[in-house]
Design goal:
Helix content is 0%, strand content 64%. The protein has no helices and 10 strands. Part of the 50S ribosomal subunit. Contacts protein L20. InterPro entries: bL21-like (IPR028909), bL21-like_sf (IPR036164), Ribosomal_bL21 (IPR001787), Ribosomal_bL21_CS (IPR018258). It comes from Rhizosphaericola mali.
């Protein structure tokens, strides 16, 4: 059984026991979170989607803050002395899917 769930504007295909990285959530380690926005359910080959879905995905926060590798954006204009170097690290939350009800 798998479901497609919408978390923070992104869609994820999850099963029970999966561990995945989602955009940063305001929760601490060990907290239980629920996701109500289920888009599709596949139960033994039978697909259900739309308004007929009454499923809830329950997960546990494994690591509240995981940072991705640094991404550098560098701009330069030749012969003008203009250089700009900025960077950022995207923040994620690691969760583990406990149950799909």
């Amino acid at each position: 059984m798998f479901v497609v769930v919408k978390i923070a504007g992104q869609q994820f295909k999850v099963q029970e026991g999966d561990t995945l990285y989602v955009p940063h959530l305001t929760a601490s380690n060990g907290d239980n979170v629920e996701f109500n926005d289920v888009l599709l359910v596949d139960a033994d080959g039978k697909l259900t989607l739309g308004a007929d879905i009454k499923s809830i995905v329950k997960a546990e926060v494994v690591n509240a803050l995981v940072q991705d590798d640094k991404v550098i954006a560098y701009k330069q204009k030749r012969r003008k002395g203009f250089r700009k170097k900025i960077g950022h690290r995207t923040q994620f939350t690691q969760i583990k899917i406990n149950s799909i009800a």
